[in-house]
Write a structure and sequence with these properties.
The complex is a heterodimer of chains A (441) and B (475). With 441 residues, chain A is α/β, with parallel strands linked by helices. Chain A folds into 2 domains: 111 residues, Alpha-Beta Complex (Aspartate Aminotransferase, domain 1); 258 residues, 3-Layer(aba) Sandwich (Aspartate Aminotransferase, domain 2). Chain A is built from 13 helices and 15 strands. In chain A, the strands form 4 sheets. A 7-stranded mixed sheet of chain A has the order 2-8-7-6-5-3-4, sandwiched between helices. Chain A has a 4-stranded antiparallel sheet with strand order 11-12-15-14, covered by helices on one side. Chain B has 475 residues and is an alpha/beta fold. Chain B folds into 2 domains: 161 residues, Alpha-Beta Complex (Aspartate Aminotransferase, domain 1); 254 residues, Type I PLP-dependent aspartate aminotransferase-like (Major domain) (Aspartate Aminotransferase, domain 2, 3-Layer(aba) Sandwich). Chain B contains 16 helices and 12 strands. In chain B, helix 10 links the parallel strand 5 and strand 6. In chain B, helix 6 packs across helix 7. Chain B starts with 5 loop residues before the first helix and ends in a 6-residue tail after the last helix. The chains are: A alpha/beta (441), B alpha/beta (475). Chains A and B meet through helix 1, helix 2, helix 3, helix 4 and helix 5 of A and helix 2, helix 3, helix 4, helix 5 and helix 6 of B.
Chain lengths: 441, 475
C-alpha cells in the first residue's frame, strides 16, 4: 500500500486529534460534494503496471531517425542518467533551504557557468520550460528594456516557437512582424535593413534557423544595434561546439532548447529552456539564478539570488510567474558538458557536420532529389523531392525510417520540401538505408 | 573543507567521452566558426562521477529525509516510475514522427486525459503546461480566450484572495489582467462580502486555491461559484493542493470552470530539485474549446493530435507537454483505484491534523481548527525568547529534517507551513514532533543554539544580501 498506516496507528492518531473518523475532519466540505462516484480502472500491482507499460511502449515503432526540427537525438553517455537519476538529486525540492541543498545549488551554478562559456554570454538562468518559452520571455524582457513595441521575428523561426511567442505577447503592447527569407533558406538581410527602425525593440533570429542554415548573425546584429534595437538569438547549443557564439556577434539575449545536451527527445518534453543575456540585463531576466555567497564563517556557499525579481516576492509586479523549471534536464546538460569538455563537444559537433554533409551529398545523387545548399548548415538541411514530402515520409515510415519533417505543413509552396537531419547517431548503415529507400521512390 | 567547482578540478587534456574521428574537411566556411574553445571543465568520466556523486550527498532529499514542505506535496516517488517513464521506445519517440510510429505514447496521453477528467469531473484536459505556474498561465489565458470569443473585452480584472498561491497574482498580470487582491475573513476562508464588493462586470475570473494556503477547504465554495458566475466571470481553481481532495470530491461539482493540477505534487512525480514538472489544465464544457492545442483524440481506434481546435488560445510551449512526467502521472493513476485514492487523501489529512494536534501548546496553528492536508503554524518571537521561524527551520535541519515552508502564506505572521503527505508513517511524524519539542525546549534553555543553526550542514547560515548586491553567477 502507498500509505504506511496500520489500523492501530490510525486509531492512535485519530484519538490524538480528538475525532473518531477522518470524515469528521472533512466537515467543511458540503456533504453532497463528498464521496462522488468514480469510474476508474482496477488498480494494477507493480508487476502488472510494468507489463502494461512495456506493452504500451511496444506500440511505439522504432525508427531509423532523420527527424530533427527542434528536437535532436544524440548519444547520451551512461554516466549522465546514472548521476542525475540519483534520488538525492531527483527527489529534492527547489533549493530554498540553501544549507541543506548545496549539492543542487552548486550544480546549477556550474550549469550557468558552462552555458555562459558555451554561449560567450555574461549571465545564464537556472533554466526555463523549453526553448520556445525562453524565447518568448527574452522578447518580453527586450520590450521592457527598450520600452519599444515592435518585434521583428525571423520567418525562419520554428513554427511552434512562433505560436508560443504569439501566445505570450498577445496581451502585451508587443507587435510582432516577420523578417522575410530569401530562396537560399536564410534571412533577406537587405530587406531587414529597411525594416528595422527606431521603433524596433528587438530582432529575433534563429541560427541555425528552422531550415538548418546558419544566418549572417554579425550583419544582422549590426543592423539591429544601429537603430538601438536589441538582438535576440535562438541557437542550437550543440552547434556551439563548432559554430560562432552569440557573444561573438554581440547578441543581447541568446536562448536555446537545451535538449541536445544530454537529454532524450521524449516526444518533445521535458525540454530545457536556456536563457542567457548581457550583464546589463541581468536584473531583467525572469526565473531562478544561483550565485556564490559566503556563510557566516566566511566559507564559500551557493544560494538562490536576485530573488527580488521573482513572483513570490514581487507578486503581480514580477517579470514572470515562473518558479518550477527544468532542473533535472539542466543537471543532465551540465553532466554532459562536464564529461565532454571543450574537446568532446567540438568532436561531436564535427561528427554532426560530417554525417549531415555526407547524407546531403548522397541525397543529391538520387534522381529527382535536390539538397538546398547555398548557406552553411550544421546537422539539418532542406531536400526538394520529386513528390510531396508527406508521401516520402509515409513510404519511408513503412520501412522503419523517419524521413524528416514535412515542410508542407508550414506553407503550401513547400509541399515537396523535406527537412532532414543527421547526427552522430546516424550511422553509415542508416544513411545507406535512407538512400536506398529514396531511390525506390 | 570547501567543495571545489568542476572547473577547479579541471586538468588540460583530460576528458570523459570520446567520439569517432572525423576526416579533415571544409564543409563550413571559417567565418561561421567559433574562434576560441569554451571554458568547460576537462575531467575524466571517473572524476565526473565522483564530483556529482559528492554533490548529491550535499543535499537533503525526500529519499533521504522527511520533507514537510507545505504546498509542495513531497510524497514518495515510486521507483517503478523512474524506470517505466524512460523506457527506450518512450524516450526515443520523436515529436514529429509519423503518428503510426508513436501510438503507445499518444495512448498514454489520451488515457491520462481521460483519467484526469474522471477524478475532477471536468470535460477536457490539456497536458501541455510544463509546471504548475505554467498551468495557471494556461488556465487564465484560456479564460481570456473564452471572454474574447464572447466579445467581453471589458473584463480586465482577476480577483485573487490573499490565501491563494503566490504565483496567482503574477500569472494574472502575465495574462494582461489587473489583479484585485481581497482579504480573507477571520476564519481563513474567502470573505464573501469582500468578494461581492470586488465582483463586477469588469471581473474576468476569480482564482481560488482549494484547499487554500492556510490548509482550509473553502466551505462556501458553491455559493462563491454562484456569485462568480452571476457576475459573468469564471471560477479558476488552483489545484496544486489537490492531494487533499483526490478521491474525495470533484472540482466540477463545486462549479469550477478551469483548473490546473500538478503531476509533480499530487501524482507522485519527483520534484527534481526544481523540475521538470507538469501542470495539466482541465476545463468545463463551455471553456474546453479554448484550451491550448493540440489535445490527443481517439478516432477509429487510433490516437491523433491532428484534430481541429479553431477556438484554441494557441500553443503554450513547443510540442505537447512534459511527456516523461506525464508517463509518471499515468503510472500513478493506474496503480490506484478509487478506494485507494480516497485513502490517500484521507491519510494526508490525518497526518497533517496529527502533527497539528501533537504540537499544540508549543507551536500553535494560526487557525485553531481541523485542517486539510497541511497545517500552518505561527510563532510569536516575543513569547519565544526572540527566536524566529527561520531559526526553527534551520535548527530542524540539524535534527535531520528538511524545513517546512516558511514565511508563507503572507497573511500568517512568522508562518511555518507543514505538509507531511500520506506516505509518511506515524513513527516519522512522532520523530519530527519530538524534534520540534526539543527545539522548543532549546529556545528557552539555549536560544543562541537555535539562532546560530544549522550546525551540522556543509555550510552555516549564508549572507544572502551580499550575494544579491554583488552577484557572482558564473566562473
Amino acid at each position: 500500500m502507498f500509505t504506511p498506516h496500520t489500523k492501530q496507528d490510525e486509531q492512535e492518531m485519530l484519538a490524538a486529534v480528538g475525532v473518531s473518523s477522518v470524515k469528521e475532519l472533512l466537515n467543511k466540505i458540503p456533504a453532497d460534494l463528498l464521496y462522488p462516484n468514480y469510474h476508474l480502472p482496477a488498480a494494477l500491482t507493480e508487476q502488472q503496471l510494468t507489463a502494461h507499460l512495456h506493452a504500451l511502449a511496444a506500440e511505439n515503432k522504432p525508427l531509423k531517425n532523420f527527424i530533427g526540427a527542434g528536437m535532436y537525438r544524440h548519444f547520451i553517455p551512461a554516466a549522465v542518467p546514472a548521476l542525475s537519476g540519483r534520488g538525492e538529486f531527483l527527489t529534492a525540492y527547489t533549493p530554498y533551504q540553501a544549507e541543506a541543498s548545496q549539492g543542487t545549488l552548486q550544480t546549477i551554478y556550474e550549469f550557468q557557468s558552462c552555458i555562459c562559456a558555451l554561449f560567450d554570454m555574461d549571465v545564464a538562468t537556472a533554466s526555463h520550460y523549453d526553448g520556445a518559452t525562453a524565447l518568448a520571455e527574452a522578447v518580453l524582457a527586450a520590450h521592457r528594456v527598450t520600452g519599444r513595441e515592435e518585434v521583428i521575428v525571423s520567418s525562419l523561426l520554428h513554427p511552434h516557437y512562433k505560436e508560443v511567442l504569439a501566445t505570450y505577447t498577445r496581451h502585451s503592447a508587443v507587435r510582432l512582424t516577420e523578417a522575410k527569407p530569401t530562396s537560399e533558406g536564410t534571412l533577406d538581410v537587405q530587406a531587414l535593413k529597411n525594416q528595422v527602425s527606431d521603433k524596433t525593440a528587438c530582432v529575433v533570429i534563429s541560427t541555425p534557423n528552422f531550415l538548418g542554415y546558419v544566418e549572417q548573425a554579425g550583419e544582422i546584429s549590426k543592423i539591429a544595434h544601429e537603430k538601438g534595437a536589441l538582438l535576440v538569438a535562438q541557437v542550437n547549443p550543440l552547434s556551439l561546439g563548432l559554430l560562432q557564439t552569440p557573444g561573438s556577434y554581440d547578441a543581447d539575449f541568446a536562448v536555446a532548447e537545451g535538449q541536445p545536451l544530454g537529454n532524450p527527445v521524449s516526444f518533445g518534453g521535458p525540454g530545457l529552456g536556456i536563457m542567457t543575456a548581457k550583464k546589463a540585463y541581468m536584473r531583467q531576466l525572469p526565473g531562478r539564478m544561483v550565485g556564490i555567497a559566503k556563510d557566516k564563517n566566511g566559507k564559500r556557499a551557493f544560494v538562490l539570488t536576485l530573488q527580488a525579481r521573482e513572483q513570490h516576492i514581487r507578486r503581480e509586479k514580477a517579470a514572470s510567474n515562473i518558479c518550477s523549471n527544468e532542473a533535472i534536464c539542466a543537471l543532465n546538460a551540465v553532466i554532459y558538458l562536464t564529461l565532454l569538455g571543450p574537446q568532446g563537444l567540438k568532436e561531436v559537433a564535427e561528427l554532426n557536420v560530417e554525417r549531415a554533409h555526407q547524407l546531403a551529398e548522397k541525397i543529391n545523387k538520387v534522381k529527382g532529389f535536390k539538397v538546398l545548399s547555398v548557406a552553411p548548415f550544421f546537422n539539418e538541411f532542406v531536400v526538394t523531392c520529386p513528390v510531396p514530402a508527406s508521401e516520402v515520409i509515409e513510404k519511408l515510415a513503412a520501412k522503419g525510417i523517419g524521413a524528416g519533417y514535412d515542410l508542407g505543413q508550414t506553407c503550401e509552396q513547400m509541399k515537396n520540401a523535406l527537412l532532414v537531419c543527421a547526427t552522430e547517431l546516424s550511422t553509415p548503415e542508416d544513411i545507406s538505408a535512407y538512400i536506398s529507400a529514396l531511390e525506390e521512390i | 573543507m570547501e567543495n571545489l567547482l568542476s572547473i577547479e578540478k579541471s586538468q588540460s587534456g583530460r576528458r570523459g567521452v570520446r567520439f569517432e574521428k572525423t576526416a579533415k574537411h571544409d564543409y563550413l566556411p571559417s567565418d561561421v566558426l567559433r574562434t576560441s574553445a569554451p571554458k568547460l571543465p576537462e575531467m575524466s568520466e571517473f572524476d565526473t562521477v565522483r564530483h556529482f556523486t559528492r554533490l548529491s550527498q550535499q543535499n537533503y532529499s525526500l529519499d533521504g529525509q522527511f520533507y514537510p514542505l507545505g504546498s509542495c506535496t513531497m510524497k514518495y516517488n515510486p521507483k517503478a516510475y523512474d524506470v517505466l517513464s524512460v523506457l527506450e521506445p518512450f524516450a526515443n519517440a520523436h515529436p514529429f514522427a509519423p503518428e503510426s510510429a508513436v501510438q503507445g505514447t499518444l495512448r498514454v496521453m489520451y488515457e491520462l486525459q481521460e483519467l484526469l477528467k474522471e477524478i475532477t469531473g471536468l470535460s477536457a484536459f490539456t497536458l501541455q503546461p510544463a509546471a504548475g505556474a505554467h498551468g495557471e498561465l494556461t488556465g487564465i489565458l484560456t479564460v481570456r480566450a473564452y471572454h474574447d470569443a464572447h466579445k467581453n473585452s471589458s473584463r480586465t480584472e482577476v480577483i485573487v484572495p490573499d490565501t491563494a498561491h503566490g504565483t496567482n497574482p503574477a500569472t494574472a498580470n502575465m495574462a494582461g489582467y489587473t489583479v484585485v487582491n481581497i482579504k480573507s475573513a477571520a476564519d481563513g476562508c474567502v470573505d464573501k462580502q469582500a468578494l461581492q464588493a470586488a465582483l463586477s462586470d469588469k471581473t474576468a475570473a476569480v482564482m481560488l486555491t482549494v484547499p487554500n494556503t492556510v490548509g482550509l477547504f473553502e466551505k462556501d465554495i458553491r455559493e462563491i461559484a454562484d456569485m462568480v458566475h452571476k457576475a459573468g466571470a469564471l471560477l479558476y481553481m488552483d489545484g496544486a493542493n489537490f492531494n487533499a481532495l483526490i478521491g474525495l470530491a470533484k472540482p466540477a461539482d463545486f462549479g469550477v470552470d478551469v483548473m490546473h493540477l500538478n503531476l509533480h505534487k499530487t501524482f507522485a512525480a519527483p520534484h527534481g530539485g526544481g523540475g521538470p514538472g507538469s501542470g495539466p489544465v482541465g476545463a468545463a464544457k463551455h471553456v474546453a474549446p479554448f484550451l491550448p492545442k493540440p489535445i490527443v483524440e481517439k478516432k477509429d481506434g487510433k490516437y491523433t493530435l491532428l484534430g481541429e481546435m479553431p477556438q484554441s488560445l494557441g500553443k503554450m510551449k513547443a510540442f505537447y507537454g512534459n511527456i516523461a512526467v506525464v508517463l509518471r502521472g499515468y503510472c500513478y493513476l493506474r496503480q490506484f483505484d478509487a478506494a485507494t485514492l480516497k485513502n490517500i487523501a484521507e491519510k494526508a489529512i490525518l497526518n497533517a491534523n496529527y502533527v497539528r494536534a501533537k504540537l499544540k501548546g508549543k507551536f500553535d496553528a494560526f487557525f485553531d481548527v481541523n485542517c486539510m492536508h497541511e497545517c500552518v503554524l505561527s510563532i510569536d518571537p516575543a513569547k519565544m525568547n526572540g527566536v524566529h521561524t527561520a531559526d526553527v527551520a534551520k535548527r530542524l535541519l540539524d535534527y535531520g529534517f528538511y524545513a517546512p515552508t516558511i514565511y508563507f502564506p503572507l497573511i500568517v505572521p512568522e508562518a511555518m507551513m507543514i505538509e507531511p503527505t500520506e506516505t509518511e508513517s506515524k513513527e516519522t511524524l512522532d520523530a519530527f514532533v519530538g524534534a520540534l519539542e526539543k527545539i522548543y525546549d532549546e529556545i528557552f534553555a539555549n536560544p543562541q543554539l537555535v539562532h546560530d543553526a544549522p550546525h551540522t550542514q556543509p555550510v552555516s547560515r549564508i549572507d544572502e544580501v551580499s550575494a544579491a548586491r554583488q552577484p557572482n553567477l558564473r566562473w
